[in-house]
Amino acid sequence: VAQRTAELSSANASLAAEVQIRKTVEQDLRETQQELVHAAKLAVLGQISAGLAHELNQPLAALRTLSDNALVLMEKERLPETRGNLERISQLVGRLGELTRRLKTFAHKPGTQPVPTPLRAAAGNAQALLDERLRRAAVSLTVEVEPEALAVLAEPSQIEQVLVNLLANAIDALASDARPDAPPRQVVLRARSEGTRVLIEVCDSGPGIAPAMRERLFEPFATSKPAGAGLGLGLMISRRIVRAFGGELSAADAPQGGSRFVIDLPAVPDPETALADAE
User: Which residues make beta-bridge pairs with 142?
Assistant: First the structure.
């Protein structure tokens, strides 16, 4: 009996040690995945940095001109025109502040706990980050979120990261579309409720998913972009983010042509409350 007791105690100790090792490994894996997600986010910011620099430089140049003009107008005691210049300066400062706020929100290291995340705000932030890129590629983006308070259970900056990844891929596909009969460059982001789930679609009018890429789309380093234009990690990381919040990310050819990516996530039971909390 004593020997059997000793054997059981030894087995229990060994099992407890193994459980602790597994917990440590799982924690390390979670931290590594969070670092990978954050690194991918910074890579996206690097890719859109030229557009962001333009977004900042344009109002900064306008601020300098307006402030110089305001000094001249004040010296000439043309107060109504001076007031107009100062009002425009205030508007531009507000625009710069909003852009930097969006950048800080997007770039910060996310948490892991899902919270009610209003989709209209997430889509608006993603659109703002890609606004200059949309203009340069002459791409029209339409955002349709119904109802307006529609929200999902996720981490806000990570959902923005997924939307930025999908929208950026759509823009790139349209910009590189060399078909002579290519339709107008359009991207549509739709979100709707289906029971306890929310479906978010990103559709474009591009050439669709290349057959050679169809099976490898969500694999690491799978990309049809030229060297230096991307690592092929965006879709893989986006799918992992979505799955971490109990959802799924899938892709297919859109019925009307182009590609269609669908995010399926848990809905927030009371979206009106989620919208009020976000405000």
Answer: 188
Is residue 253 within 8 Å of 261, Cβ to Cβ? no
pTM: 0.65
Q: How far is CA 51 from its chain centroid? A: 16
Give the whole-angstrom CA distance, residue 279 versus residue 267: 19
The Cα 102–Cα 117 span in angstroms is 15
Sign, CA torsion 192/193/198/199: negative
Q: Are the C-beta atoms of residues 238 and 232 closer than 8 Å to each other? A: no
130 near 202, Cβ under 8 Å? no
Closest CA to 152 of 189, 111, 193, 188: 193
Q: What is the three-class DSSP state of 275?
A: helix
Taking the C-alpha atoms of residue 105 and residue 99, their distance in angstroms, rounded to an integer, is 10
Residues recorded for the chain:
279
Any bridge partners for residue 202, and if so which?
189, 261
Q: Give the separation between CA 222 and CA 239, rounded to whole angstroms.
A: 14
Q: DSSP label at 231?
A: -
pLDDT digits (tens, 9 = 90+) for 53-77: 656 776 777 788 888 888 888 888 8
